[in-house]
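Reviewers of the previous submission asked for a worked example of the structure-prediction workflow described in the proposal, so we include one complete record here. The input consisted solely of the amino acid sequence. No template or homolog information was supplied to the procedure at any stage.
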Amino acid sequence: MNNQKNISIKKKAAYISLFIGILMFIGKMGAYLITGSAAIFSDAAESVVHILATSMALTSIIISAKPADDSHLYGHGNVEYFSAGIEGALIFVAAIVIIYQAMIDLIKGTVLKSLDIGLVIVGLAGIINLVLGFYMVRTGKKTDSITLIADGKHILTDSFTSIGILIGIFLVILTEYTILDPIVAIIVALNIIGTGYKLIRQSVGGLMLETDPRLLEKIANMLSNFKKEYWIDIHELRYWKSGDGMFIDFHLILPCYFTIEQTHKEEKEITEILNKEFVNAQIKIHFDFCRPELCKYCEYSICKIRKEDRSVKFEWTVKKLSGDAVFKIH
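From that input alone, the workflow returned the following structure tokens.
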């Protein structure tokens, strides 16, 4: 996907999320003022987080779209990890506010009214957020945006929260036990805390360049499948991500008589292969040259300077490709 088109899709999704978030907050606050329900207040509080988080997401998308400059040679993509982490922290704050309000209602008691109206408003909000959440997650995966994925997961949590509150309000109407309302609010808050922790964990992992074993194995398998017989060894395979950008580097040992032109040809072919799957990836290859000690590992049968036949075989697994060279050349 074209990078500018990618950015345009992300901005559009963020604007839609922000607009709907504002409408949801107005609706839920209206429902809270009508009913006096702590559970509905908890839903409205999470909508405040939705608005703040989506505003931050939109800002981070705009910043991450800036090209690399003298002070950010690898671009500005990591700002999306900050956005996801702050969103997780805001979710924690919302949960604390919800629990505080619910505890007051448990101690002092609460008077509920017009719950049928609140039931309808919360139900509609839940359905809208369910659709929006799936849209944001799908768009985030399509554009490789952790910010949109985080926002989408938060919105899905908001919709599940609304479902829980619907059940709580229905039980209050059915049993007339108003104490169930703040209890449901506390249960909702505990669920929100779990979502906040996951977002913060994902954010920290991105900022710390945490390796995804499945992604590393995918890169290794692509290199292994494309492998040529004169590729003597690949080692020190690494990758890291910054927003929707990706950086892959590794060492490749080739016959020592290969020209610079030949090595550039190999680099171009490898880049084209990897970019089919990882469109925005920047590939950096450090080329090493062979020594006679490597002949026993080499399967290039027509090599013109071979000193001995191949006698040592090894599998091109992810563990091998991300590890050390088969033979350390000093």
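Residues 3-35 form the longest helix (33 residues). We consider this example representative of the routine output the project will generate in years two and three.
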